[in-house]
Write a structure and sequence with these properties.
Layout lengths: L1 H22 L2 E6 L7 H16 L4 E6 L7 H10 L4 E2 L26 H8 L2 H8 L6 E16 L13 E4 L3 H9 L3 E4 L5 H6 L5 E5 H6 L8 E4 L4 E9 H6 L2 H36 L3 E4 L2 H11 L2 H4 L1 H4 L1 H11 L5
Helix pairs in contact: 2-10
The structure holds (2S)-2-hydroxybutanedioic acid.
The site of (2S)-2-hydroxybutanedioic acid has 9 residues, from loops.
């Protein structure tokens, strides 16, 4: 009799555990602000595919592209509250959360090339920066790549003087604000999802972004000129809600970590190609003229922005800037 009850109990337990775990997978919401057809959009889809596969469907990953769930600032708040579990904001967006050091990536011309980027993100500084997120209720899992930024406007911009008095949309970074002030322009922080309309209606005159973002948000349709300046960089930190991550069963967390590693390698591998293709598509469209800066123009822009390294040392940390420059040095493409 005793044995029978035990057997029935275990059948009942199995019945509860079985269908419950089969019917109710852990849901991981991944929100981001760019289009699906971008390095970040594609890497997030790859993470979904691999994460669901490696966990055998025990985790369901819902990806929300194009700010369809939250805009820039909201998504970080939602992550901290646990309303969404994963994001990949650009390095420029952590300042308002109190993690200003990531703005070191915004310093103009700090990255001589892509190899330097990998050295920094894969080295001690990259690790230290990710560690800073812990106290904000999130864990930094990976660095995802986008690419170098170009300037856009309705007139060609060759020299610093051309920027004077123009309004530029910026991401929420004090370093980017300082960059445009040094050019005599007026920076305006704005959510990514609002940029197209702000350009179209003339709320701002121009903006800076990667080819991929300029193309997929159709900014090139409302900007007559794109200056190929490569003056700065946009990349991302994949962050996950700390409590959600730490509460996951260890085997599932391991499977998701593996999926993240592979999605990261995939995304970082395609990023450059995606940007080149976006640039070519813009060129082909004929909607926007691409202005290639001369060496002398580049030098003039660089010189105008140089004081930013001293001006922003206090915000970003002089030691952080020095460490970045040291780790980036010597890398060749
Ligand atoms: C921007 O706001 O311009 C970018 O950070 C958007 C993005 O996520 O690439």
């Amino acid at each position: 009799m005793h044995k029978l009850i035990l057997a029935a109990a275990s059948v009942a337990a199995l019945a509860v555990a079985g269908p419950a775990s089969a019917q109710a997978p852990i849901v991981l919401k991944f929100s981001h602000v760019v289009a699906p057809d971008t390095p970040k959009g594609k890497a997030s889809e790859k993470f979904k595919e691999l994460g669901e596969k490696y966990t055998n469907g025990k985790v369901k990953i819902d990806v929300y592209h194009n700010s369809s769930l939250y805009k820039d600032k909201e998504e970080l708040e939602a992550l901290q509250l646990g309303a969404v579990q994963m994001l990949a904001p650009s390095n420029s967006k952590f300042g308002p959360m109190g993690v200003k050091e990531f703005e070191v990536f915004d310093l103009p011309y700090i990255l001589p090339n892509k190899a330097a980027l990998r050295k920094v993100t894969g080295g001690p500084l990259g690790k230290r920066l990710l560690g800073l997120l812990d106290s904000k209720g999130m864990i930094g899992l990976a660095y995802w790549d986008n690419g170098f930024k170009q300037m856009s406007a309705n007139k060609p911009l060759h020299l610093p003087a051309d920027y004077k008095g123009m309004k530029f949309r910026i991401q929420s970074s004090k370093v980017l604000e300082a960059q445009f002030r040094l050019l005599g322009a007026i920076p305006q922080s704005m959510a990514f999802s609002e940029v197209y309309q702000a350009l179209q209606t003339g709320v701002v005159d121009g903006q800076e972004n990667t080819w991929s973002n300029i193309y997929t948000q159709k900014m090139f349709e409302v900007q007559k000129y794109i200056m190929e300046t490569n003056h700065g960089y946009i990349g991302y930190v994949v962050v996950v809600n700390k409590k959600f991550w730490e509460d996951l069963p260890a085997d599932i967390r391991g499977q998701l970590e593996k999926a993240m590693q592979e999605a990261t390698a995939y995304g970082n591998d395609i990023a450059e190609k995606e940007n080149i293709e976006a640039m070519e598509a813009i060129k082909k469209s004929g909607r926007s003229t691409i202005v290639v800066a001369t060496e002398a123009e580049n030098a003039a822009m660089r010189k105008a922005m140089e004081p930013i390294y001293d001006d922003m040392a206090k915000r970003v940390g002089k030691a952080t800037i020095d460490e970045f420059v040291k780790e980036a040095a010597g890398a060749t493409n």
